[in-house]
Amino acid sequence: MASSIIATPSHTLSPPAALSSAKLGAAPPSLFLALSSHHSPFPSLTLSCPNLRFLVSIKQLTHRAVAGATAAELDDKEEEEEEKDDGSVTKGLAYTPPTKPKKGKAALPYKRDRTRSKRFLEVQKSRDWTKDHDVPSAIMLMKQMASTKFVESAEAHFRLNLDPKYADQQLRASVNLPKGTGQKVKVAVLAQGEKLDEAEKAGADIFGADELIEKIKEGFMGFDKLIASPEMMPKVATLGRILGPRGLMPNPKAGTVSSDITQAINEFKKGKVEYRVDKTGIVHVLFGKVNFPDEDLIENFMEIVRSVGTNKPKGAKGVYWRSAYICSTMGPSIRLNVKQMLEYKPPPSV
User: Fold this and answer.
1) How far, in Å, are 129, 250, 254, 300, 327 from residue 345 at the CA level?
2) Stronger pLDDT, 243 or 128, i.e. the higher one
3) Taking a C-beta distance cutoff of 8 angstroms, is the pair 248, 227 a contact?
4) DSSP 3-state assignment of 347?
5) What contacts 108, CB < 8 A, 6 or more positions away?
6) What is the 3-state secondary structure (H, E, C) of 212-231?
7) How many whole angstroms separate alpha carbon 229 and alpha carbon 257?
8) pLDDT digit string (tens) for 23-77?
9) Is 156 exposed, middle or buried (0-12, 13-18, 19+ CB in 10 A)?
10) Nearest Cα to 287, choosing from 254, 344, 325, 340?
11) Residue 68: other Cβ atoms inside 10 A
12) In contact, 185 and 176? CB cutoff 8 Å
C-alpha cells in the first residue's frame, strides 16, 4: 500500500534538503520522496524509499560514471600524444625548450679556453696535456710557444706540500741565478753616513735616509728592490703597511737587510731573485728570458730547484714536491716530471 500513498506537504522534501537534514538509515519509515524534473535526470521517475539508502546508491553510481568518463578522456589524450610521430614537442611540466647550437669560442669544451685569445688557442695545440716532460724538452717547448711581439720571461711554478698559515711551514728565500734574469733591476738603498757613499759607488739607483723614507710615505715607488742597513730597520718598520703588500719590505731572509751594502747591490744587479710560498702552497719565480740559450735557462732553473729543496721548512711533512710547471709570460704551462726534474744532471758541456 506504500506505493499508492502520496506524501503530504509536511513530509515533502527536495533531494538536497533531504540529504542535508537526514542521516543514512534515520529517515521516518513513512517518508516518500518524489524526485522532480529539476533534481532528477529522469523526470518521469518517482522514487519512494523509507531511509534514503536508494538515493545514496544512485549518487554513488553517478560519481563513478563521471570518474570513468574523466579517466577515459585522459587515456584518449595519452594515446593521441603517443600516436604523434611528426617530431613535434608538447609543452608540459618536463618541457625543455630547444637550445641553439653554440658557435665560436662558446662551443669550446673547456670553460677556461672561452676567454683565451686566438693566438693562445693556436699555440697550445702543440702541447700534450697528458704528458709529463723532462727539463730539456720542456724548455724547448716553452720557447716554441712564446709567440708574442715582446721578449717573454721564463717562469717556474712549484706546488709544495706546505700550509703557510703554520709558522714552521713558511718558505721565503733568495737565489743567485748564474746567468742572470735578463732584466734591469732598479735598486734603492736606505742607509746612513759612510754606507750612503758605499751605495753610490756600488751603483745604487736611489739612495737616502730619512728623506727617502718620507718620499716613500708620500707614495714614491720608483724601484724594484729596497735594501736597508740594519741600523735603519727601526725607521723602516713604519713603512710596513706600504711596502709589505708589494713585496718590497726589507727582510734578512731575502738578503735585502745587509751590513755589506756593496755585495747586496751587486747580487741583485747580477740576477738574484727572491721567492716565497703563497697562501695556496705555490712558489712562483722567474728564471730568465725566452731568448736565452737552452743551456742558460736549464742552469738557472736547476739552481732554483736546488734552492727550494735546500730551504725546505722543518714543518713540511710527507711528499714535499707535488707538481712543477714552467711557462712563458703569455704562454700555456708545461707540466714536468717531478722525479726526473729532481734527478736531472746537465751534461758536462753545460
Assistant:
1) 25, 34, 27, 13, 21
2) 243
3) no
4) coil
5) 114, 121
6) HHHHHHCCCCCCCEEEECHH
7) 6
8) 444 444 444 344 444 444 444 444 444 445 555 566 565 666 555 556 566 566 5
9) buried
10) 325
11) 10
12) no
Helices and strands in the chain, H and E counts: 11, 9
Question: Given a cut of 70, is residue 324 above it in pLDDT?
Answer: yes
User: What whole-number distance in Å separates Cα of residue 120 and Cα of residue 118?
Assistant: 5
Residues 341, 305: contact at Cβ < 8 Å?
yes
Q: Which three cell numbers stand for residue 227?
A: 735594501
Asked if pLDDT for residue 287 goes beyond 90, the answer is yes
Q: In whole angstroms, give the CA distance from residue 308 to residue 305.
A: 5
The single residue listed with the C-alpha cell 676567454 is 115
Cell for 158? 712549484
Q: Are 33 and 18 contacting, i.e. CB atoms less than 8 angstroms apart?
A: yes
Distance CA 336, CA 246 (A): 30
Q: Spell out the domains of the chain, with CATH numbers in brackets.
A: 2-60 (no CATH), 118-182+272-350 (3.30.190.20), 183-270 (3.40.50.790)
| Residue whose entry in the numeric block shows the C-alpha cell 722525479 | 339
Torsion sign over Cα 292, 298, 304, 307:
negative
Q: Are 317 and 169 in contact (CB under 8 A)?
A: no
Please give the helix or strand (H or E) that residue 60 lies within, else none.
Answer: helix 53-83
pLDDT of residue 60: 63
Pick from 327, 311, 316: nearest CA to 141: 327
Dihedral, 132, 135, 140, 142 alpha carbons, nearest 10: 60
Q: What residues pair up with 245 in beta bridges, in sequence order? A: none
Element (H, E) at 9: none
